[in-house]
Amino acid sequence: MGAGTSIVTNMRISRASLVLVFLLTALPATTSSAQIQAPPINGECIEIAKGYKCFYGPFKYSDVDQDGDLIFSGFVRPPDASGYITSMRAALEDADGGFVPRHAVHLHHAVWLNTRKPDMTCDNFIAPDLLPYLPDRFFATGKERTKIELPDGYGYHWDNKKIDGYPFLAPTWYMNTHLHWMHGDEPEEVYIRLNLGFTHDDEADGVTDVRPVWFDVDNCSDSEFDVPGPKDPGNNYKRTWDWTMPEGGRFVTLGGHLHDGGRRLKLFNRTTKEMVYVSRAKYGSKNPADSGWDLRKMSAYSADPGIDVAAGDVLRLTAVYDHSRAWKGVMGIMIGALVVEE
Ligand SMILES: [Cu+2]
Questions:
Q1: φ, ψ for residue 203 (rounded to 5)?
Q2: Is residue 93's pLDDT more than 80?
Q3: Could you tell me which CATH number the domain at 8-203 has?
Q4: The CATH number of 210-340 is which of 1.10.101.10, 3.40.50.2300, 2.60.120.230, 3.40.50.2000?
Q5: N or C: which end of the chain has fewer CB within 10 A?
Q6: 119 contacts 136 by C-beta, under 8 angstroms
Q7: CA of 334 to the centre of ligand 1 (A)
């Protein structure tokens, strides 16, 4: 870990596991906790009406690898206050706050992790000097620019206090992102802007906390897989992952993340034999191949009281991809906001 203000590594994402990157960048070489130095924290959050705008970066063209890729994994600033996050969306900006076209710099994905809470679906991360759990993956976005809008009265709680015993960890988030400069050096640098709807604790009477649930067909790894191909047009490629709910409750939001070539993500309750939600990829044209498989959007769910699940229910996530050709390093992720049953 350098003394710089950002941790940028140019390794290929296909070899960079999120969990592994976290471990490597967050843990100093020494094993003595007394010698652990505070890691750099990237970015800042500015309070605006009803929330925060956070900026992370700069991510510079001068740091990309020979393929134009840039991977960042490191600690980032959360809002400097405790409260409930009620909505989340992210976009790329240039140094002047201008819009960065998708054909200039491609946001493969960005993931935010809350160091204050453990992740529900991945607990294979153990680094006692840092944290005895994988931080909570509470938001992810990519080309589809996932927007999370929790129904009124719900929020994801952020506790902006220090954690006893982990002095250098508080209060921070962790962020992993993969950016790709498509055709050269413009713009020279970009920032990731994260817009948060936010209700401060002292105004949050009656707000119900939600628990993120990360469904991922390549969970606890780098979340990436390849679709082998090509097959004949019209064929689909499917990849599944099962998760037994440790707690019951109701999902008030669900949103999906696929890459180009993705068709849909299905979350099916194998115990009740009911479909929980299908997040569909939207392309520029009805025939995605005509639009060059340029993914525009993923449908998302947000409603109160939401969709019931019981503790012990087995939920199956299926990522469905086009199989008319090979797709490299794609993903299939759905994040739900669960209101845990009392
Ligand atoms: Cu992705």
A1: -115, 15
A2: yes
A3: 2.60.120
A4: 2.60.120.230
A5: C
A6: yes
A7: 11
